[in-house]
Design goal:
Length: 391
C-alpha cells in the first residue's frame, strides 16, 4: 500500500493497476480471472450478494470463450438464491472453475466458493459458516440454532410430559408453517453444497491420501455431508460472522491451496486486494466487477450534497441549479453549478461568485485525494428537471 501511496496513485491509476494485475494473474496461471468484490464495512444496503450481481456477472462473462476461469470473490454474503444462479451459470459455461479468497467470502459467498473445482486462499482469506439466517420477530437468528432448540424441547416434552412455563409459551407461538420454512432454509444450503462438493471439488478425488484406497461415490457423499454438517453447525462456530481460515477448513476435511506458498502468485493476489481497498477508501465505489476486458464499478450516491433547484412560479423553465458538495473524507466544501442551456453569461455570473462548473465526467478529485462521484446526483437532477446538463 505504501508503494501506491508514495506514487500518489489516484482512482484512474488504481483502476489501470487492477487491470494490469489481472493480466499478470492470467499469464501466470494460464486462466481467465474475474474479480468480484464488495466494500465490506461500508454502510450501504446494496452491499450484499444479490440477483443484480448475478445479472452483471452473467453479462461480463457471457461472451468469454475460455473454458477455464478463476473467480476472485469478496463478499459479506447475501442471497442464497443469487449464489445458486451464479454457480449454475458458471457451471453451464466453464469446465474448470477455481475460487480465490484473500479477504472475506462469508455465508452465501462461502456457498459459491464450495462449488469450485479448486479453492485458493491467502493467510488473510476467510470463509464462514453457511447456516441460514432467518428473521423471527424483529431479529435474525441461526436456522440451525432454531431447529436444534425446537428438537430439544420436543424431546424434553416426550420424555417428561411437560415443559417449563417459559418454554411452553415460546413453543406455543411457533406455527407449523414457520417451522417448516426454517427447516427448508437450513436444508437449502446443505443440499446445494453436498451436491457441489461431490460433483466438482471431489470429482478428481480417486484415492485416499493416507491408505491409498479407491474412493467410492458413497465415500464422497459421506465426506461432503461431514463438511457441510460442520459448516452449518452454529454451535461449533458460535457466530455466523466467524472467520474460518485455512487451518479451520483443513480440520473439517476441506482441501485448500495455500496461495502464500507461491511467491509470484501471492504477490499478485495481495496487490489486487490492496488496490481494491484503496479504491474503496478513495472513491464512492462499493462493488467491483472486473476482468482484463471489462470493468463495472457500482457507485454510491454521494452524501453531503445540497441541491438548490429554483421553484418559483415565474420561472417555469429552470436554466441552472446550484450544488454544495462536501467531501465525506476530509470535509472540504465545493460550490458547483450546472446549467441546462449553453449560455456563457451564466458561467460569467456564477464564476464571479466563486462557483465551479459541474464536471463533465461527474467526478471531483478532492485535495485530500478522495474522488467524489456525482453520477447519481446528476441523474437525479436531470430526471427531476426533465433536461440534460450543458457543458
Amino acid at each position: 500500500m505504501n508503494e501506491y501511496i508514495n506514487k500518489r496513485y489516484g482512482a484512474k491509476e488504481l483502476e489501470d493497476e487492477l487491470k494490469s494485475l489481472i493480466q499478470k494473474y492470467n499469464k501466470l496461471k494460464d486462466t481467465y480471472l474475474i474479480v468480484y468484490s464488495s466494500a465490506i464495512g461500508k454502510p450501504i444496503p446494496d452491499l450484499s450478494l444479490s440477483m443484480d450481481d448475478y445479472y452483471i456477472i452473467f453479462d461480463v462473462l457471457r461472451n468469454i470463450e475460455d473454458k477455464k476461469i478463476d473467480f476472485y470473490i469478496e463478499t459479506p454474503g447475501g442471497s442464497g438464491e443469487a449464489a445458486e444462479e451464479i454457480v449454475r451459470f458458471l457451471r453451464s459455461k466453464f469446465d474448470d472453475i477455481s475460487f480465490v479468497v484473500s479477504g472475506e467470502a462469508k455465508s452465501a459467498g462461502t456457498l459459491i466458493v464450495l462449488s469450485g473445482d479448486e479453492i485458493y486462499m491467502t493467510e488473510s482469506g476467510a470463509l464462514g459458516p453457511i447456516d441460514a439466517q432467518i428473521k423471527i420477530g424483529r431479529s435474525f437468528i441461526s436456522a440451525f440454532d432454531y431447529v436444534e432448540w425446537v428438537t430439544e424441547k420436543r424431546n424434553e416434552a416426550e420424555k417428561t410430559g411437560k415443559l417449563n412455563p417459559f418454554d411452553a409459551t415460546m413453543v406455543a407461538q411457533i406455527s407449523p408453517g414457520e417451522l417448516s420454512g426454517v427447516q427448508h432454509s437450513l436444508s437449502f444450503a446443505k443440499d446445494l453444497v453436498v451436491e457441489w462438493l461431490q460433483n466438482y471439488k471431489f470429482k478428481n478425488w480417486n484415492r485416499t491420501e493416507t491408505r491409498n484406497v479407491e474412493v467410492t461415490k458413497e465415500m464422497k457423499t459421506q465426506r461432503a455431508n461431514e463438511i457441510v454438517g460442520d459448516l452449518i453447525n452454529h454451535g461449533k462456530w458460535r457466530s455466523h460472522g466467524r472467520s474460518l481460515k485455512i487451518s479451520d477448513l483443513h480440520e473439517i476435511g476441506l482441501k485448500i491451496h495455500r496461495i502464500d506458498d507461491n511467491k509470484d502468485l501471492s504477490e499478485i493476489v495481495y496487490r489486487i486486494q490492496t488496490v481494491i481497498r484503496m479504491l474503496y477508501n478513495s472513491t464512492s465505489s462499493y462493488k467491483i466487477f472486473a476482468t482484463k476486458d471489462n470493468k463495472l464499478f457500482k457507485q454510491a450516491v454521494q452524501a453531503g450534497v445540497t441541491k438548490k433547484i429554483p421553484k418559483t412560479q415565474q420561472q417555469k423553465v429552470i436554466d441552472v441549479v446550484d450544488l454544495d458538495v462536501k467531501c465525506p473524507k476530509c470535509g472540504n466544501k465545493y460550490e458547483l453549478y450546472a446549467k441546462f442551456i449553453p449560455n456563457k453569461k451564466i458561467d460569467e455570473e456564477l464564476k464571479s461568485k466563486g462557483k465551479v462548473p459541474f464536471p463533465s465526467n461527474n467526478k471531483i478529485t478532492c485535495d485530500c485525494g478522495f474522488q467524489i462521484d456525482l453520477t447519481g446526483i446528476r441523474n437525479e437532477i436531470e430526471t427531476k428537471v426533465g433536461r440534460k446538463f450543458q457543458f
